[in-house]
Amino acid sequence: MTETIDSTIPTAKVYKDRAFWVGTFLGGPLVAGYLFAENFKALGQPEKVKPTWVIAIIVTIILFGGIFLVPENITIPNQIIPIVYTAITFALFKKIQEEKVEEYTNQGGVFYGWGKVIAVGIIGALITIVPIFSIAFLADSIEQANITTKTYGVAVKHEIDFDNTNISEKEVDEIAEAFFNTGFFDLSVAKYVYVVKNGSKYEISISVMEGMENDTEAIQFFRELRDQMDNYLPNNKIEIKLVVEYLDNVVKVLK
């Protein structure tokens, strides 16, 4: 009699609802896939394990691949994306596994402890984040490798940075010549400029001091500079971006 009762007691552990919330928030969709897969195995549904992993991997690729496609001018709070995919995972657990997990634990099955859940979440985060940062670092390194710097002038060295896969050195020389002709490249202060070609348009980022975007006279100067550059480079539209400290910090765009 005792042997019959013991044989019906579940021996595998399962993950409960709160484990899905904490584990997925820490480690992302891959951890969600792991938790679902482990529960399917414990619940006697091994045929669902492989599809679960396939879905988790695809979702991870789509999610983090999509992050790289978000335009730089769109800011998404860091916590929004984890909260969204964690809430979706939690809802899926409620719909797909909660009832069977409850039945399983009522028969004597037990839950994994929080130490296991947190460890799985951290490991999942490392597995997900390390490749992403590696790809981002590699992409940034490749981009930096294509950046060329040319200096113009003798007494005062003016600098133009550009991506040599985006715009030719000859075109950059023509832009520099236009800057000399307008007097922007002068003998008083060295200027830093970054040029990007977008179709037939030259997007010229010029480094300025913080607060200059609120100086009416300074803005008028750059408007006139843009108009003069149009005259010297008639085949290309000129757009001037005033930046402070770094290129992404655009404080004024003059079209």
List the keywords:
255 residues; alpha/beta; membrane; 2 domains; transmembrane; GMP Synthetase, Chain A, domain 3; two-stranded parallel sheet; transmembrane helix
How would you summarize the topology of this molecule?
Blueprint: H1 2-7, E1 13-14, H2 17-27, H3 29-42, H4 49-69, H5 80-96, H6 98-106, E2 110-111, H7 114-145, E3 147-152, E4 158-163, H8 169-182, E5 192-198, E6 201-207, H9 216-232, E7 237-243, E8 250-254
Parallel strand pairs: 1-2, 4-5, 6-7
Antiparallel strand pairs: 3-4, 5-6, 7-8
Helix pairs in contact: 2-3, 2-5, 2-7, 3-4, 8-9
Continuous helix count: 9
Low-confidence stretches: 1-7
Biggest sheet details: 6 strands, mixed
Biggest β-sheet: strands ordered side by side in the sheet = 3-4-5-6-7-8
Reading the helices and strands in chain order gives HEHHHHHEHEEHEEHEE
Span between termini? 87 Å
Overall pLDDT score: 84
Radius of gyration: 29 Å
Q: Give the strand content.
A: 15-25%
Q: How many β-strands, per DSSP?
A: 8
| Structural domains: how many | 2
Shape field? rod-shaped
Tell me the structural class.
alpha/beta
How much helix, percentage-wise, in residues? 55-70%
Description of the molecule:
The chain is α/β, with parallel strands linked by helices and 255 residues long. It has two domains: 2-144, no CATH class; 147-254, GMP Synthetase, Chain A, domain 3. The chain has nine helices and eight strands. The strands form two sheets. It has a six-stranded mixed beta sheet. A two-stranded parallel ribbon has the order 1-2. β3 and β4 (158-163) form a beta hairpin. The model is unreliable at 1-7 (pLDDT under 50). Keywords: Membrane, Transmembrane, Transmembrane helix.
